[in-house]
Amino acid sequence: MSRRVLWVGGDAYQLTHIARARQLAWYPPKRTRVVIRFVRQVFGLAAAATILGAVTANSSNQGAAAAVPGVLLVAGLAYFVYRLVTQLRQRPLYRLVLEMSNASTTAVVSHDARQIGALIRMIMEAIDNPAAEFAVQIENVHVGDTINQYGDHNIGKQVGA
């Protein structure tokens, strides 16, 4: 019997060991929550700048001390606006999860739910049909750090890999 293998990048999964392939979705936080969090952060930043301004008002070096709350306010506001825009632009992510007898593995992450669904159907057809072959090019989305602490290929944590 030939070994039927599913290749995803550099990872190989033996088709006979795949018990289930499924799609999981991650949806970004709701827009109202993101905006409410932004407003709270801006009010907190304004309060901190006001308190810092009151503390530095009695400073002997009035010019430099007076600029600190303003610089803090502008820098903090720029950071919070950047975070607001990036969080509002987030799109849902769809994961192809391969479940084997011993573990579940996320093989592919994409913004396109239909592409992940089609890939699941192709994998299931390949399991049923030993002669099936297919090749698909998917723009994989990388989410977070890479962590592998299993077996001989322990890489630990690779930040931003």
Automatic annotation (TrEMBL):
Transmembrane segment boundaries: 38-57, 63-85
InterPro entries noted in UniProt: DUF6232
Protein's UniProt name: DUF6232 family protein
Entry keyword annotation includes Transmembrane helix: yes
Keywords for the protein's UniProt record, in alphabetical order: Membrane, Transmembrane, Transmembrane helix
Protein origin, superkingdom: Bacteria
Lineage of origin: Bacteria, Bacillati, Actinomycetota, Actinomycetes, Kitasatosporales
Organism: Streptomyces sp. Y1
